[in-house]
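INTERNAL AUDIT FORM
Audit reference: QA-55
Scope: verify that the stored structure record matches its stored sequence.
Auditor: D.O.
Record contents follow.
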Amino acid sequence: MQCVAGVDEVGRGAMAGPLVAAAVILPACRREDLGEALAGVRDSKLLTHERRVAMLADIEAVAQSIGVGVVPVDELDRMGLGAANRIAMERAVLQLDVEAEALVIDACVIDLGLPQLGPIDGDALSLSIAAASIVAKVTRDRIMIDLAAEEDRYGFELHKGYCSPLHKARLAEHGPSIHHRRCFSPVATWGETS
C-alpha cells in the first residue's frame, strides 16, 4: 500500500496572518482500524477550538509523520493567494520526515511530481485530510495568538485575522499593521473610504 499524505490549508479568507498548510501521513489502515484514537477527527471547521486542540494530541500520537508549511503575509502579498496556497501545501509535504508516495488534497493539486487526488470536500472524505485541517488550524490559531501578544490593537486572539465586525472596526480605527494582507479587501482599500 502506498504511503499517502493528506494535505489541507487554513487562512485563505483571513485579512491578517499567514496561510498555513499541514500534511499528515496516517498508518496504512482503514478508519475503523484506528479505533477510538481518531474517532472524532473531521474537518476543523466543524470542531470547537477545545476539541481541535484535543484532537491534535491524538493525531500526533497516531500519525507516522506531520509536516507544516507557512507562507507569511509579505510573501503572500507578493505572490497572490493561489500561488501562496500551493506553496504552503508544498512546504508542508516537504516537511514530512516520511516520504509520501501519493497525496490527497482538499479540492486542489500541487506540483511535486507525486500522484494525487483533489476531491471536493476532501476533509469530509479522507481521514488524513481532516487530520491535516486540524493540524493546520491549531497551528495557525497559535500563530495568531502570538501575534496578538506582539500587536494587541486588533484582537487577533479573538478572530484569528478573519473579517469579523471587531476586526473591521479595529482596522478602521488603527489602519493596517505589518500582519495585514495588503492584497485583501478591505485592507487594500483602507484609507480610500476612511
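Auditor finding: record pair retrieved intact. The beta strands are 4-10, 19-25, 65-71, 102-105, 116-117.
Action required: none
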